[in-house]
Amino acid sequence: MSKEGVIYRISGPVVTATGMSAGMYDVVRVGDEGLMGEVIELHGEKAVIQVYEDTSGIRPGEPVINTGETLSVSLGPGLLTQIYDGIQRPLPTLEEVMGVFITRGVDADAFDLEKKWTFEAVVEKGAAVEGGQVIGHVQETETIVHKIMVPPTMSGVVKNIKSGDFNVTETVCTLEDGSEIQMMQKWPVRTPRPYRQKYAPDTPLITGMRILDFLFPLAKGGAAGIPGPFGSGKTVTQQSLAKYSDAQIVVYIGCGERGNEMTEVLDEFPHLIDPNTGKPLMNRTVMIANTSNMPVAAREASVYTGITIAEYFRDMGYDVALMADSTSRWAEAMREISSRLEEMPGEEGYPAYLSSRIAEFYERAGRVETKNGDDGSVTVIGAVSPPGGDISEPVSQGTLRIVKVFWGLDAGLARQRHFPAINWLNSYSLYPQSLNQWFRDNIAQDFPEIRTQISGLLQIEAELQEIVQLVGSDALPVDQQLTLEVARMIREFFLQQNGFHDVDAYCDINLQYSMSKAILSFQEAAKNAMAAGAQLNDVVNVPARTALMRGRFEKGYIDTIDDMVKTMIDEIGATVEDN
Amino acid sequence: MTGKEYRTITDVKGPLVFLNKTEPVAFGEIVTIRLADGSIKNGQVLDTSDDLVIVQVFEGTAKIDRTAGVTFMGDVFKLPVSKDLVGRILDGAGRPRDGGPDIVAEENADIIGAAINPFSRQSPHDFIQTGISAIDCCTTLVRGQKLPIFSASGLPHNDIALQIARQAKLKGSDEQFIVVFCAMGITAEEYNFFRSDLERTGALENAALFVNLADDPAVERIITPRLALTAAEYLAFEHDYHVLVIYTDMTNYCDALRQIGAAREEVPGRRGYPGYMYTDLAMLYERAGIVKGKKGSITQFPILTMPGDDITHPIPDLSGYITEGQIVISRELHQQGIYPPINVLPSLSRLMGSCIGADTTREDHKSVSDQMYAAYAQGRELRGLVAIVGEDALNERDKQLLDFSGVFEDRFLRQSRDEDRSIDETLDLCWELMSSIDTKYLVRLDQKWIEKYHPDNKA
Ligand SMILES: Nc1ncnc2c1ncn2[C@@H]1O[C@H](COP(=O)(O)OP(=O)(O)OP(=O)(O)O)[C@@H](O)[C@H]1O
Ligand SMILES: [Mg+2]
């Protein structure tokens, strides 16, 4: 057997080769045009290959060459601000070579191999270094220092290291045993990168979205699933997370979704300012776009490409957030390949290993002690697109079994234009217990209690609504009518948040707390006033309450809200005398 | 290169022909099959290996036997494209159907089409005025968008599509769209309706038609939309046209896909449709848009009929997951005698935000659209309550909203088939209708627009 074989069969993205020595996950070049593929099954003599490019026009008998490498990503300075396809080819480079339509058979380096970066050594000659240890810094973008690490599989004593301007393939450090370290390294995408240990998450990923931070918080290093039918807001939510969450690095994977949505991100992000650093958002972002009409095998690979890049930045000690929109399209790619392999199907035609693949993917999230001894994290947020919006299907179920946060999007809410259309009654987060201390220490001592009160009111509202459906709200006692008004305020003033609003799209966590307190202040003032004889209608309609609620659309609300609450309380008090 | 003729058919099953002992045949290669009576059928290679080749036959496999001669044409399916496609009527496989000459190719284009590099796209942002108030105000169409009509059998989706094709224009411009019309399995009557309407209005001269009717081969429907889109891409990106692609009925297309899947004994997905239907549909719908450095654009209006009026059926469901919104036609409104019976509540244009406002439509558009939607939604909901507790139990606000929902349907939605309302007319009408509601209940309207546009303040 040799490195070169021939094509025996072609069936869509799956090609079978004979006469070639191959191992699982070897990268191969298929056909006269040298299309990139990966070995995914071995049958005696035959190697089954998934091909990352369109296979039409390819014939049996054409050559297949085994490169002997496994599917890997290139890691090094130049990743940030870049947009890649599922197998890490930069889309701008593809445009230069192919024009606006993606043709095939073109290789492209993951980043500019010629560009010089200023490398600043942080260890000295004679230092003993281990895999994962940081040996130097490169200021990659205005906000991010790219840390150059010893490849995880290497260790030794530094024989030579020099600061200066280098391109990514030049050697910056030599070890006593002769091994050379460049700024670019490779890592196989299907293998998690190593770390020292996993920690329990204890810090929230602050997103600036009230319903998420306040009611269903996600921890840095945690995993969340966002299932929802079409048009319910998965993409808008994911994009808001990419814009506003307080991660240091964002990896955004458009997996089998729309081309225009990626264009939108590309258009917008360079002009958007990261609320956490005041610098353009693009500086911290890596994008992967393998849209629905691009080859499915590359779609399958895209989530691995993305998470490997995320782990790499984690290993530098950063908090990384990864969004995958949508994991269902990844699962469907697996299903399509699996059915071409004529594997025994599991539920709904998905391969039997679907749920273990999903679990393995989300397991790559986590807060870790890096090999360098730092604290780093990868937070994963996966959108799920269940057929007909019914989450009893395998991808939703496989996801819910592993993630600890469930943000359930609801078609009914989206239709009422209640955005984000996250259903507060069935969504959940299993993190509050581990995050409460953080909220107490950093926001307010009573933060968890306030949260409980707010979500309690929403529960009561749901029960009362059932009665209202039958008899109308006028039939309820006034104290319950007040509860409904308070709950309405929670929904309209607090939970609703337009993802496109100039000011309100992002809400500081301290402001979130003030707003929640404002609602409870209204409740208390109204209760007191009504006990003293005021009318519900008057209490609800005091102008200062309307002003308070509108205030969130103005800049500087965080400074004015307390006074607005005081005015509201005074006006509510005055409704007693009016009577 | 056209190779030799093989007589090695082993099996024929559904739309598929299996044969062995061939020279190496390319995946996707075009095939002709000559029957004993001299007639020719066409097909395409779905699976190829040293031992076995599977061919999907577009015209159906009737009369094919083991003696039929199979020739591999050496190339994948290509459409001869030329500017002369405009004004022509072709059949579902791209042959003239209007008695005219063959198309003289300026180029032969692969019908599968390559994916547009997401980096090379340009975000759509030009407002298209359709003259239909419900669409222009509430689910605004943007040039380069893919916006399907979700309809059902017996509803007037064709009238709406034609009205859009007739009236669609950029605001303040009389730049015309080229219409590429693609029929998949529709009845001759429906087709004649389309054609005579296009003829009557002179639009046919600016249109290219690809027609596969109900009695034409079902499997051919797999390629018909690809031909139409290939023509559209050529006209848009080589000749700078703004192209509006209308295809109907996607449901027939999907059924053809299911038929092939079944013949290949694939593991079926939901309701028997293939698991790869999402990807397959995306390969069509994603061929809409605008690209950097090209003047033209492709806007898509796919029409599909929801089996059993069910929006969760895989065909509308998977479409909704790919397209940029949807316009939903309502049987209930149709039965009330309202045309166009568009239910704005489940309808959505996801690109609307990028094309409305002071610079494009009007400064109050967003505010008006939000308020119209909210008031109508609340009014509709109250209808349910009134049925239980009676109208007397409603407070003043609710009474006004309830009445508004009726006016909304009767005056805002309803318009005639040739009524072409400008966006200003549409928005003025909204203000007129909303003035029946006390302004204090119109909380979504910006105060400054109330002062400027409310009829009470205008006079
Ligand atoms: N937070 C939000 N604020 C304002 N509008 C929103 C918000 N979320 C969703 N929307 C509205 O809903 C529309 C659909 O949202 P989005 O594209 O995120 O849906 P999706 O769940 O990703 O759908 P699909 O599965 O089809 O991709 C948006 O175009 C926007 O109009
Ligand atoms: Mg989406």
Explain what this protein looks like in three dimensions.
The complex is a heterodimer of chains A (579) and B (459). Chain A has 579 residues and is α+β, with helices and mostly antiparallel strands. Chain A contains 16 helices and 27 strands. In chain A, the strands form 5 sheets. In chain A, strands 8, 19, 20, 21, 22, 23, 24, 25, 26 and 27 form a 10-stranded mixed beta sheet that branches. Chain A is globular, with a radius of gyration of 27 Å. Chain B has 459 residues and is an alpha/beta fold. Chain B has 13 helices and 23 strands. In chain B, the strands form 5 sheets. Chain B has an 8-stranded mixed beta sheet with strand order 9-18-17-19-21-15-22-23, sandwiched between helices. The radius of gyration of chain B is 25 Å and the shape is elongated. The model of chain B has no long low-confidence stretch (mean pLDDT 91). Chains A and B meet through strand 1, helix 1, strand 9, helix 4 and helix 6 of A and strand 5, strand 11, strand 12, helix 6 and helix 7 of B. Bound molecules: adenosine-5'-triphosphate (ATP) and magnesium ion. Residues 234-235, 257, 325 of chain A line the site of magnesium ion.
Task: List the SSEs and their pairings.
The complex is a heterodimer of chains A (579) and B (459).
Chain A: E1 4-11, E2 14-18, E3 26-30, E4 35-43, E5 46-51, E6 63-70, E7 72-75, E8 83-84, H1 91-98, E9 101-102, E10 117-121, E11 128-129, E12 134-139, E13 145-149, E14 156-161, E15 164-166, E16 171-175, E17 180-182, E18 185-188, E19 197-199, H2 210-215, E20 223-227, H3 234-244, E21 249-255, H4 259-268, E22 285-290, H5 296-315, E23 319-325, H6 327-340, H7 354-363, E24 366-369, E25 375-384, H8 394-400, E26 405-406, H9 411-415, E27 428-429, H10 432-442, H11 447-471, H12 478-495, H13 509-531, H14 536-540, H15 543-550, H16 557-578
Parallel strand pairs in A: 8-22, 20-25, 20-26, 21-22, 21-23, 23-25
Antiparallel strand pairs in A: 1-2, 1-6, 2-5, 3-4, 3-6, 4-5, 7-18, 10-12, 10-15, 11-14, 12-13, 14-16, 16-17, 19-24, 24-25, 26-27
Helix pairs in contact in A: 5-6, 7-8, 11-12, 11-13, 12-13, 13-16, 15-16
Chain B: E1 5-6, E2 9-13, E3 16-20, E4 29-34, E5 40-49, E6 52-57, E7 69-76, E8 78-81, E9 89-91, E10 107-110, E11 115-116, E12 121-122, E13 127-129, H1 133-138, E14 141-142, E15 149-151, H2 157-167, E16 169-170, E17 178-186, H3 188-200, E18 207-213, H4 224-239, E19 242-248, H5 250-263, H6 277-285, E20 290-291, E21 297-305, H7 314-320, E22 325-329, H8 331-335, E23 342-349, H9 365-389, H10 396-413, H11 423-434, H12 447-453, H13 455-458
Parallel strand pairs in B: 9-18, 15-21, 15-22, 17-18, 17-19, 19-21
Antiparallel strand pairs in B: 1-7, 2-3, 3-6, 4-5, 4-7, 5-6, 8-10, 12-20, 13-14, 13-16, 22-23
Helix pairs in contact in B: 9-10, 10-11
The complex binds adenosine-5'-triphosphate and magnesium ion.
